[in-house]
Amino acid sequence: MTKEFSPDRLDIKAFAQAQAHLEGQDPLSQFKRLAQEAQGPHDDVHVRWAAQGELRSETGAAPQVWLHLQAELDLPMVCQRCLTLAAIPLDVDRSFRFVADEATAEALDDESEEDLLALSKEFALRELLEDELLMELPVVPMHDVCPDAVPLASSDADFNQATSEKPNPFAALASLRIAKPKQ
Fold this sequence. Notes:
Distance between the termini: 98 Å
Strand content: 25-35%
Structural class: alpha+beta
Mean pLDDT: 88
Low-confidence stretches: none
């Protein structure tokens, strides 16, 4: 009989020992903080995710508990260039090593290259998914290429004066002929 694992109350150690796999496609509304970042209609937006547990052995050490996490979605946000809605892709592909408790994770954090988390029998996988997706949010959301050309216009006299055609200050040099030295 295989054990059923829940992403809301995941026993991380048992999940890794079973080398179990979970995946889902959840509506954005299940991720409250992430849904607050969405703009425009987003009823049909889903977070696609997968999680894989594993035990990794190192020479002379006990096997370590790891979780590999992948998630993606296209979050509707306002493009800051053209000010229209854009589907901003967010992708997460990360691995986490689990240690005995928070104190151990904190103590090893500075010297460790991997992301460390504390073992739990009731780990909230969706919360980790949401945290990782929130960290992928761009500071300035934009289309790769805006659907319409963005006209540059200003009612500021200083801006208009700065962008107006000005004569090239070196144009007079173009009319000078430089005599070639005789050989």
